[in-house]
Amino acid sequence: MSLPPISHPIWHDLVCGRKTLRLEFLAANFLIARLRLVIHESPGTPTEIRCAHELYQLYADNAGLPSARRDLEKLG
Length: 76
Prior knowledge:
4 helices, 67% helix
């Protein structure tokens, strides 16, 4: 289990809806839903980058949780 770097396109793809995965980490599912609304209401590259960073940080802060670790295996 390793956290993909912030520069990895998976973070951007998840928050923009270009990639959907069945994630087990409930907080990530809620955050992604909220971030997609933020991007819908305020489209643009700066918003997308900020949202991708927010999702990355959630996983970075919670990488020790079992559900987050299982998600990271899918993302890697």
